[in-house]
Amino acid sequence: MNSNKYRMIYQELSGKIISGEYQQHDQLPSENLLVKQYQVSRETVRKALSLLQTNGFIQKLKGKGSVVIYNESMNFPVSQLISFEEIKESLNMDYVTHVESFDKVHASDYPAVMTALKISGNTELFKVVRTRRKGETVNIIDTDYFLVELMPTLTKEIAEQSIYSYIENQLGLVISFSNKAITFEPMTTAELELFNGASPPYAATVRSIVHLSNAVAFQYNISKHRASEFKFVDFSRRPTIKK
Amino acid sequence: MNSNKYRMIYQELSGKIISGEYQQHDQLPSENLLVKQYQVSRETVRKALSLLQTNGFIQKLKGKGSVVIYNESMNFPVSQLISFEEIKESLNMDYVTHVESFDKVHASDYPAVMTALKISGNTELFKVVRTRRKGETVNIIDTDYFLVELMPTLTKEIAEQSIYSYIENQLGLVISFSNKAITFEPMTTAELELFNGASPPYAATVRSIVHLSNAVAFQYNISKHRASEFKFVDFSRRPTIKK
DNA sequence: GAGTGGTCTAGACCACTAA
DNA sequence: TAGTGGTCTAGACCACTCG
Fold first, then answer.
1. Could A179 and B243 be called an inter-chain contact, meaning their C-beta atoms sit closer than 8 Å?
2. Residue B35: in which H helix or E strand, if any?
3. A219, A241, A243: best mutation site toward chain B, by most B Cβ within 10 Å?
4. Which overall architecture, per CATH, does domain B5-74 show?
5. Residues 100 through 139 of chain B touching chain A, CB cutoff 8 Å
6. pLDDT tens digits, residue range A173-214?
7. Residue pair B55/B70 in contact by the 8 Å Cβ criterion
8. Cross-chain Cβ contact B202/A200 below 8 Å
């Protein structure tokens, strides 16, 4: 699957960084060394290193080498396009997902979704509301809208597991990128009820528009988090190109 | 300054997208066409297009071409390493910065900063507290800690303008990447006072560790936002490499 | 089949860092 | 000066899309 040379190199090096074989502030082997080790061209090594750099694993220093900057403690629900089930898995979290409702609706009743996904009013959508509980307390309410046309066989049972796994593994679609907005908003009475009370009565709210690799927006997600439990972590680089 | 070929191409294409000459869903010229237009090699064109893709301007579709996905409305204090003055400028915001305090302190009194910047207790720091006001209301309180060693000539006057501009243009240092964490926290009484009241008494809190291009952490920033005014926007891609 | 983007190569020249 | 990463080239072969 990942049989590209640069992906293999990326995987091996990132794996060694995550496992701790390379620690923060360590030097990676030089590009020339990696060329010899992997028996590939320099541009291929550089492609792998560039990926490591944009993903926050290393910093390349001209004239010096590549140094590891990844630090486990600064990790977490990272600014990445990852499904809740995937986060849960990678963090060994003891969350339980419960499907509160699963309906087929018309976009015309949800103007915000219409504009976000740029669809017409008669487009059919699956509306899925799910809660994420830790023990007895609900910490997250996820409301999702999916294009029925792209996944006509979606069911409540699938929604109880991982919809992303279904989309990628069963349907063979490729999820690619998203736009997110994070705000802090008062809870509606319905939300307060689902949360079974929350102090403060405010929710950290993440709205996302998710796109496939063919650039089609297929999902609109509203994720309401109990504010006291919310943390969003991000790695970002300063734009290298200025006017 | 940006005399690289791929940067020039990036600038020109991103400029045309931002200005609206290329609209969302438009096709960019094919790689081969760009090769001819710019009289460069294909890898150089591809470098520019890759940058446009990772920065959320385009999506490349195998067998088809590059399509514009950038959409102005989904813009804003984006997940990027940008200083407040730069945001202000790019959005024509009518904010006023006021320096509340400017001190030289010892790291030992700020254990959170010590661990964040990985420095020893006797390291000298500038502690700068600034408020950002729109009219009469304070919307943001920024608390910054900078390594004195790297910028001994920092002054309160500079802090009233743009510290980032001073660091890059006066000192010639290159600001490179940062780790951020966003949380929602109750305000302290001191903060409530600076905000001159805020309902709810919660602050959207962004903590960042900012690094230079040589991977040295030089700044720790705590940015408290009036929750009702806070919005954080992010573009992210799904990791292409899986285990 | 023609055109598109994706991967990879071998080699060149440059700018920067460090001893 | 030797070693490092940054840019650029010309060409190859592949996989995908679409008419």
1. no
2. helix B31-38
3. A241
4. Orthogonal Bundle (1.10)
5. none
6. 999 999 999 999 999 999 999 998 777 889 999 999 999 999
7. no
8. yes
What are the helix (H) ranges across A63-104? 84-91
Residues of chain B found within 8 Å of residue A76, distances taken between Cβ atoms: 181
Question: What does the pLDDT average to over A209-233?
Answer: 92
Residues 32-61 of B with CB under 8 A from A: 43, 51, 54-56, 59, 61
Type and span of the H or E element at B29: none
Any CB–CB contact under 8 A between A236 and chain B? yes
B213 in A contact zone (CB under 8 Å): yes
Point out the least confidently predicted range of A17-21, B70-74, B120-124, B130-134.
B70-74
Amino acid identity for residue A15 in this structure: G
Q: Tell me the nearest-neighbour CA distance from A124 into chain B, angstroms.
A: 22
Q: Is CATH 3.40.1410.10 correct for A84-229?
A: yes
pLDDT on residue A242: 61
Short-list B80, B112, B90, B75, CA closest to B178: B80
What is the residue extent of each domain of chain B? Answer: 5-74, 84-229
Q: What are phi and psi of B22, to 5 degrees?
A: -105, 125
CATH architecture of A5-73: Orthogonal Bundle (1.10)
pLDDT at B75: 58
Angle between helices B42-54 and B31-38 (to 10 degrees): 120
Which nucleotides of chain C does any protein CB come within 7 A of? 3-12, 15-18
pLDDT digits (tens, 9 = 90+) for A100-132: 999 999 999 999 999 999 999 999 999 999 999
Q: Which nucleotide is nearest to B53 (CA to C1')?
A: C5
Q: Kindly report, residue by residue over A51-90, the tens digit of the pLDDT.
A: 999 999 999 999 999 999 998 766 544 556 677 777 677 7
Residue nearest to nucleotide C16 (CA to C1'): A63
pLDDT of residue A94: 80
pLDDT tens digits, B92-114: 677 899 999 999 999 999 999 99
Q: Taken in order A92, A164, A84, A180, is the CA torsion positive or negative?
A: positive
DSSP B10: H
